[in-house]
Design a protein that fits this description.
This protein is α/β, with parallel strands linked by helices. The protein is about 30% helix and about 15% strand. Strand 13 and strand 14 (about 445-450) form a beta hairpin.
Length: about 550
């Protein structure tokens, strides 16, 4: 059998909303079973805390400041190599079922004469994936998002005549009088979705993934199965809609201390509409019940999918990655959505199952190594036997760690956020080019560099809930200086020289290629030049 990879990503799934990560009431036995078969990385962080740039980092193996797609809808520029670009030369079919949040560089493609409907143009437009079925969700009746015509046709076959069944069926409920209640409104989150479980997004895209696997045959494949949920709209079909009442919810994590003279950027985000909505306990309770139900539905689908792999005889040849693109505040820290860098937002679940015998030494363990979402691409490339390309990919393969050959991956993790599109920037009066935040976390200290403002600093050893910002405390100025030095060392890295390897530079500087080409600058005499070409020492 050929080697295969199943790269599963959920959207907006918090690291701590799995029973294997310690959630006290939400049971996720099928995801837990993956953790028992592989390694659960307990300290994994995204490279940005919003969908688009986070995913572009996960698909390129590069930091946001390297690939340049800093926010949703900002195109990934033509020329950035993605997972598919690395795998196709190895004969691996690299396909997508679900979401990427990719925005194509239309202007760049036009400049280079790449037609969007050509083979190369389609791959560039789809983040390097063969789009077996792309479904980004987020397509209400309007300009935002791409409609999935296959899903529309499927729902019509099921008897739904709605023009946009994603919006009015899968993500809406109805009252006793038959009035449609949109899932976009948070207070409708506790209502049963009009769609049945089978008709809703998560089971639908799971079945499409199974279709791809069935059709793939003996060709090695890497399938990116990318779920839309538990991202909002927070609404879920029966029987999941009322499984998790208030008694099953974790208590809110926030303190009045956080609102006393907060960092200006943090304070501005507390004022966002979605943050204020989550301070209403009735609203928050409804949302969390749906959020937990959506995760339970995903877990049930993991059970279906793993049983399918078993039945197809593929389990022992398939590397599985299970992760998320970022978390969800859910009212913690007086915040809604994601975007800043508390663990609720920046920390993600990451489970990797390596079926090889070499990985038996770590099977079922929990790793506390600091890892990043950009480590997924080199891990998959390593699994298929590809060569390391550190001049392009900034992440590091996790396979050596999983096979007991390496104990630590890195000293700190980085996450970046461009808040120039947000109302918070306007409230602060910050210039677009200065609306940047960068988090550096070394396992204890979480340092957030903020253009134009003081830094934020949290000590997760003494303050694991991240309530006390020490960034303006003079007692911790030395710690801020140390972390700022690490940040600037990282910021000065070489990340744009992707067309030539370090080894090629080394060879070019060692083989006197300019001299061999007849460029003899620096030689005093012809004799000296001849000696150099012969590899001899310069005559005295």
């Amino acid at each position: 059998m050929s080697k295969n990879v199943l790269f599963i990503m959920c959207d907006q799934l918090r690291w701590d909303y799995l029973s294997c990560a310690g959630h006290p009431t939400l049971e996720t036995p099928h995801i837990d079973a993956l953790a028992k078969r592989g390694v659960r990385f307990d300290r994994a962080y995204v490279q940005s805390t919003i969908c688009g740039p986070s995913r572009m980092s996960s698909y390129t193996g590069r930091y946001v400041s390297s690939h340049g797609s800093t926010w949703n809808g900002i195109p990934l520029k033509v020329g950035e190599m993605t997972l598919g670009d690395h795998l196709r030369p190895l004969g691996v079919r690299t396909a997508l079922c679900g979401k990427t949040h990719m925005a194509a560089d239309v202007e760049g493609m036009k400049r280079l004469g790449l037609a969007p409907d050509s083979q190369i143009g389609a791959l560039v437009s789809e983040c390097g994936f063969e789009p077996y079925e792309r479904d980004d969700g987020l397509h209400p009746d309007g300009k935002y998002g791409k409609r999935n015509k296959n899903y529309d046709a499927y729902m019509k076959e099921r008897g739904w005549e709605e023009e946009n069944p994603w919006d009015s069926v899968a993500n809406s409920g109805e009252d006793a009088d038959g009035n449609i209640l949109s899932g976009w409104f948070l207070d409708n989150s506790d209502i049963e979705a009009r769609a049945s479980d089978e008709e809703s997004e998560t089971p639908y895209i799971t079945r499409r993934a199974m279709d791809f696997i069935s059709e793939a045959g003996d060709t090695p494949w890497c399938l990116h199965l990318s779920y839309i949920k538990p991202h909002w709209p927070y609404i879920v079909p029966a029987p999941y809609h009322d499984m998790y009442g208030p008694n099953t919810h974790m208590p809110v994590v926030r303190s009045d201390v956080e609102k006393e003279n907060p960092h200006p950027v943090y304070g501005a985000f507390m004022e966002e509409r979605v943050s204020k909505a989550f301070t209403n306990e009735t609203t928050r309770t409804k949302v969390i019940g749906a959020y937990m139900g959506l995760i339970k539905q995903i877990d049930d689908q993991m059970g279906e999918l793993m049983a399918f792999l078993d039945a197809q005889g593929l389990t022992d040849d398939t590397l599985i990655v299970f992760t998320s693109d970022h978390g969800d505040y859910l009212g913690d820290h007086w915040m809604g959505e994601k975007e800043l860098f508390h663990d609720q937002s920046a920390r993600i679940p990451l489970i990797v199952v390596d079926p090889s015998r070499e990985a038996d030494v770590t099977r079922g363990t929990v790793s506390t190594a600091l890892v990043e979402a950009i480590d997924v691409v080199p891990t998959i490339l390593d699994y298929f036997g590809g060569q390391e390309v550190p001049h392009i990919i900034e992440g590091r393969s996790l396979l050596p760690l999983m096979q007991g050959k390496q104990h630590a991956v890195r000293d700190f993790v980085i996450s970046e956020y461009d808040y120039s599109f947000r109302q918070a920037r306007r409230r602060l009066g910050v210039d677009i080019r200065e609306a940047k935040l960068t988090m550096l976390f070394d396992g204890r200290w979480k340092y957030i560099f903020s253009e134009g403002f003081r830094p934020m600093l949290f000590d997760l050893e003494t303050d694991p809930e991240e309530f006390n910002d020490l960034g303006d405390n003079p007692d911790f100025a030395g710690e801020c200086d140390r972390l700022r030095t690490l940040f600037f060392q990282w910021a000065r890295r070489t990340s744009q020289r992707t067309t030539i390897t370090d080894a090629q530079i080394e060879n070019r500087s060692a083989d006197l290629s300019e001299a061999k080409a007849g460029i003899v600058i620096g030689f005093a005499t012809e004799e000296e030049y001849k000696y150099a070409l012969a590899g001899a020492q310069t005559p005295q």
